[in-house]
Amino acid sequence: MKNLSENIQYIGVDDTDIDLFEGQYVVPAGMAYNSFLIQDEKIAVTDTVDFRKVADWEANLEKALAGRKPDYLIIHHLEPDHAGGITRFVELYPEVTIVASAKAFAMLPQFMELPAETKKLAVKDGDTLSLGMHTLQFFTAPMVHWPEVIFSFEQSEKVLFSADAFGKFGVYDADPDDWACEARRYYFNIVGKYGAQVQAVLKKVAPLGVQTICPLHGPVLAENLEYYLGKYNTWSSYVPEDKGVLIAFTSIYGHTAKAAEVLAKELETAGVEKVVVSDLARSDMAEVLEDAFRYDRMVVMAPTYDAGVFPVMEEFLNHLKSKNYSNRKVGVVENGSWAPMAAKKMTEALSAMKKITLCETTVSIKSALNADSTAALKQLAKELV
Ligand SMILES: Cc1cc2nc3c(=O)[nH]c(=O)nc-3n(C[C@H](O)[C@H](O)[C@H](O)COP(=O)(O)O)c2cc1C
Ligand SMILES: [Fe+2]
Ligand SMILES: [Fe+2]
């Protein structure tokens, strides 16, 4: 779906040659920077795009405008993946009024210098802006994903412009049936820390009767909205989405990897709903983090390294902490050849997270599995079933 309706047109751009989104996320299916044109007595443009794609966006904008001039530029989110075209837009249309939160206007000069005479309209929670038949109502959405974020709701067509919320990795025309996987990876890695703030804004928009959601990334959502709202409600409340065990391991010589396999078999044989085994050094860590949040149980397995824990596991645990990983049951398996320390380090890191229930059994492997450590691994498996 390119155009939403007669009056709301898509003018965003797909980015299929970006190597890493936000400096760290692989996006094999590309990335969309969404922007829309609302044409009525007054004309509003919602957001711009990343610097990388401003020229393409400008072409889309001019074509859709067909000679008319826009009155407003609505900035829902000032992050550079959406704000790259603001300077160019004001150059093209110096008469335009920029609409954003007061926080966005405070931050804007850090990113760009606009002419002093540029008109600005700061909007607060609940404010409305009439375009004719169409009216935009604004809602602050602080920390979904930055402090200056606003949502807007177009009242006549019941369209919610939801900033980064409901966004996903991948292009605009992505298959909606495949939404959850990349939307979940996007959510937990990019917005995941701010579950409470997402919950707050979901409550604000609940009574509006939203019929279409226009996020800043990924496809427009126009059908089956309960599904998407339900997913966001689950994710933002830190409740596990599915029953299952993620085994996140790392290994230098292969013995911890072997133990991960043995544990997975044990869990599968015992009837665990879903077992996912991920080698941290060879996986997209953002994907492993997504699975950690998706399932209700996790086992972390790592060798000792210079009296600490192997670096990629340390990094994984840091990511989990920073994204507010909580409310899950976790088992710990270490390996070490002379003075194993990994379990202590992993347990410390997990203990700094909220509502983590550690399994009673911690498994310590001395170089390779033997009868004792295999028995301990089986005991751990029992605790996880
Ligand atoms: C650079 C380096 C540092 C290590 N530091 C420790 C250590 O401090 N204490 C220890 O018990 N083992 C240490 N080890 C040994 C491994 O933790 C141990 O051999 C373990 O069994 C490896 O498990 P894997 O077969 O899954 O790779 C170190 C290994 C390497 C390569
Ligand atoms: Fe963002
Ligand atoms: Fe974004």
Protein traits:
single chain, six-stranded mixed sheet, 385 residues, Metallo-beta-lactamase, Chain A, Rossmann fold, RibonucZ/Hydroxyglut_hydro, binds flavin mononucleotide, elongated, alpha/beta, binds fe (ii) ion
Notes on the structure:
Pfam families: Flavodoxin_1 (PF00258), ODP (PF19583). GO terms for molecular function: electron transfer activity; FMN binding; metal ion binding; oxidoreductase activity. In the N-terminal section; belongs to the zinc metallo-hydrolase group 3 family. The protein has helices at 54-65, 80-83, 86-92, 102-111, 179-191, 195-205, 225-236, 255-269, 285-294, 311-322, 342-351, 371-384, and strands spanning 8-10, 13-15, 31-33, 36-39, 43-46, 72-74, 97-100, 119-122, 128-130, 135-140, 150-154, 159-161, 212-214, 242-249, 275-279, 295-305, 308-309, 328-336, 356-366. The protein folds into 2 domains: 8-236, Ribonuclease Z/Hydroxyacylglutathione hydrolase-like (Metallo-beta-lactamase, Chain A), CATH 3.60.15; 242-380, Flavodoxin domain (Rossmann fold), CATH 3.40.50. The protein is elongated, with a radius of gyration of 24 Å. By secondary structure, it is an alpha/beta fold. The model has no long low-confidence stretch (mean pLDDT 97). The chain has 12 helices and 19 strands. Flavin mononucleotide (FMN) binds at residues 251-256, 303-307, 335-340, 367.
